[in-house]
Amino acid sequence: MKRVLRSLLVAATVSAALTGGAAKASVRVVETSKESQACIDCHKKHTLSIVKQWKSSGHADAGVGCFECHKAKKTDPDAMKHHGFIVSAIVSPKDCGQCHPKETKEFTNSYHAQGGKFVYSAKNVLGMVITGMPNNYFGCAGCHGAKVEIGKDGKPLAGTWPNNGIGRFNPDGSVGSCAACHYSHSFSLAQARDPKTCGKCHQGPDHPDIEIYELSKHGIAWEYHHKDMEKVLERRDIKAGEDYYQAPACFTCHMGSTSTGVKGSHDVGMKSSWNIRGPISKRTENWQKKRELMKKTCMACHTKKYVDNYFKVYDEYIKMYNEKFAIPAKDVMTFMYNHGVLDKTPFNESLEWDYWHLWHHEGRRARHGAAMMGADYSHWQGIYLVAYNFYFKLLPEADKLIERKFKEGKIDKATVEAWKKLKKEILSRKEHKWINSSFEEIKKMEKENLKTFMEAVNK
Question: Mind listing the UniProt keywords for this protein, alphabetically (predicted)?
Answer without folding.
Answer: Signal
